[in-house]
Design goal:
Radius of gyration: 21 Å
Number of helices: 10
Number of strands: 20
Helix content: 25-40%
Distance between the termini: 17 Å
Largest sheet: 8 strands, mixed
Order of helices and strands: EEEEHEHEEEEEEEHEEHEHHEEEHEEHHH
Shape: globular
Number of domains: 2
């Protein structure tokens, strides 16, 4: 079946004065550097239709993600499993409720109801009306936008910073769609790095990925949607040598990424007809046994009077562990995630509802039988960090967040379990 595509965009900038996400501290916005957006891409092949949503936000909780996907799916008559909702992970966007006690903002619910939900639905409806037959082209280039941020010190401690020998995902993939008259319709860019270029500034901004997509839109004449990879341990490469910067440094990083995107776009030599397929399934990962009651009480007593940043979520989770014991709810249970894989020709899109380490994306790509395997991080929900097994022994921010994300603990080999589960689903495309 001939592939069709449509696209549309809406502005989702919040009112000034609301808290900004990403750094776990009150940080109200004071100005708008550039508008936040939702870019909707609809792809259709025969009876199969999907929506790809790129949203300029930091994180969206599982519950809000499902609610928004259902609204968008209902608007054009498709199941919400066929709506792929991805955040760019900008840290200069509004806080939304439901993603952790250190990410609770004022007005998050109103923002969802008044701006986010209706604007996303509007973009999806407009994209559906613009749908037309397309051909697809694809190119991959190397990019230096990302640098590993797990800085290792002589005492073997890991902090947020720069680790020049650490793993990153150096590939940038550009997928371009043109209509039957060879006119550009929409582009998709996939690469991997935190959107923390602005640092803790009271500004609303898409961060470096906005500069990059703007550049490619000028060059190509088509809307461009950015989908981040597994950037849990990857910072943007900043001229100051840190993992955050300011507006000037953010613009420089975005300009460099924009040149990479334009180079890849110009490397596309052939646009061809292709097809699309979707597989929806369920992934289950058994939790580790619940923390023993006496240990939970001991750990809680040790930090109950602390106001340290990382102790606050730990206290809340230890309370939940104690409550589960008191309710007698200590039987083994599974972490369950609904999964939808999308194949567009030789491209497979794998949503990853975690802030996952780059190694996970690299391994998925290496083990896959398809030409292009793109792991979309921060997609279809948020389940905190997912480090690779070899990172857990050294600890650090990402590992702490992994351990204190939920009262029931995911096993240390969750990365392998998640990879293998997705590879098994991929087999159904063959």
């Amino acid at each position: 079946m001939k592939l069709k595509a449509g696209t549309a965009r809406e502005i989702i900038t919040p009112k000034l004065g609301g808290l900004l996400a990403g750094y776990g501290s009150p940080n109200p916005s004071a100005s708008v550097h550039d508008d936040l957006t939702v870019t909707a891409v609809i792809l259709e092949s025969g009876e199969t239709k999907i929506v790809l949503l790129s949203v300029s936000l930091c994180l969206i909780s599982n519950d809000i993600s499902i609610e928004l996907r259902k609204k968008c799916g209902n608007a054009i008559g498709i199941p919400y499993s066929n709506v792929i909702l991805s955040t760019t992970h900008t840290h200069t966007g509004p806080v939304l409720p439901g993603i952790g006690d250190d990410h609770v903002g004022e007005g998050g619910d109103n923002y969802c109801e008044d701006i986010l939900f209706p604007k996303c639905v509007k973009a999806v409806e407009a994209a559906a009306k613009a749908i037309k037959p397309v051909k697809m082209g694809i190119a991959v280039t190397k990019t230096a936008i990302g640098i590993n941020r797990r800085q290792l010190h002589p005492d073997d401690k890991v902090t947020l910073g720069n680790n020049p020998w650490g793993i990153t995902d150096p590939e940038m993939t550009v997928i371009a769609f043109k209509d039957e008259e060879n006119k550009p319709v929409v582009n998709i860019v996939h690469c991997t790095a935190h959107n923390t270029g602005n640092g803790i500034l009271p500004v609303i901004s898409r961060d470096w990925c906005g500069v990059m997509t703007d550049r490619l839109e000028i060059e190509s004449g088509a809307l461009t949607a950015f989908f981040n990879g597994c950037a849990g341990d990857v910072a943007p490469r900043m001229a100051n040598g840190g993992s955050t910067g300011d507006i000037k440094l953010m613009m420089e990083a975005g300009a460099a990424a924009g040149m990479d995107a334009v180079r890849a776009y110009k490397d596309i030599r052939e646009y061809h007809d292709t097809d699309m397929a979707v597989v929806a399934d369920e992934i289950k990962i058994p939790y580790d046994p619940l923390k023993p009651l006496e240990l939970a009480k001991e750990q809680y007593d040790a930090i109950k009077d602390s106001s340290e940043r990382f102790d606050i979520p730990a206290k809340n989770l230890l309370k939940q562990v104690i409550e589960l014991h008191e309710k007698g709810e200590t039987d083994p249970v599974d972490f369950v995630m609904e999964q939808t894989l999308v194949r567009i020709g030789s491209v497979v899109i794998v949503p990853v509802p975690f802030e996952a380490s780059a190694e996970i994306s690299l391994r998925l790509r290496a083990y896959s039988k398809f030409g292009y395997t793109l792991a979309f991080g921060y997609t279809n929900g948020s389940n905190s960090y997912l480090p690779s097994q070899d990172q857990i022994c050294r600890g650090g921010y990402e590992v702490e967040r992994f351990y204190w994300a939920r009262p029931r603990q995911l096993p240390v080999d969750t990365d392998t379990k998640l990879i293998n589960a997705n590879l098994k689903i991929m087999e159904r495309f063959l």
